[in-house]
Amino acid sequence: QVQLVESGGGLVQPGGSLTLSCAASGSALDAEAIGWFRQVPGKKREGVSCISNSDGRTYYLYSVEGRFTISRDSAKNSIYLQMNDLRPDDTAVYYCAARMSATVEAMCQMWGPIEFWGQGIQVTVSS
User: Fold this and answer.
1) How far apart are CA 14 and CA 7, in angstroms?
2) 34-43 pLDDT, tens per residue?
């Protein structure tokens, strides 16, 4: 059984920073790819950033590249999303997810089913 638990969300002003954390239990870190997704009401869920557990390769949504950084800490069974220069359109529920076999691009583009999801955490960017 895999569990993914997000933390670190909240309210931040435009231009501010937040770091999201995802604590994994079970076999999540045996997953080939782990990543962050987000969703706003009425829109499709989109891949924000994904990282490979085997070689550390990363993938970023074009609108967050240069502002967000994904990282992992195998010793702590955790992944992180450092979000800088936040904008109002970054407001969404953010989800941590793990997929047992996929490239980072395939995972973030959601080409195929993703086996494991966290419960989601709200990030609101507003003045």
Assistant:
1) 20
2) 999 999 999 9
The rounded mean pLDDT for the chain is 94
Q: Are 31 and 85 in contact (CB under 8 A)?
A: no
Give CA–CA dist 103/34, Å, rounded. 10
Q: How many CB atoms lie within 10 A of CB 21?
A: 17
pLDDT for 2? 62
Cα 94 from Cα 102, distance rounded (Å): 20
Place of tokens 């195929």: 112
Instruction: Return d(Cα 91, Cα 113) in angstroms, integer.
Output: 25
115 contact partners, CB below 8 Å, separation of at least 6: 2, 31, 98, 99, 100
pLDDT for position 72: 92
Using DSSP, how many helices (H) and how many strands (E) does the chain show?
Answer: 1, 11
- 100: DSSP letter: S
Q: What is the pLDDT of residues 42-70, one digit of tens each?
A: 999 999 999 998 899 999 999 999 999 99
Q: Are 49 and 36 in contact (CB under 8 A)?
A: yes
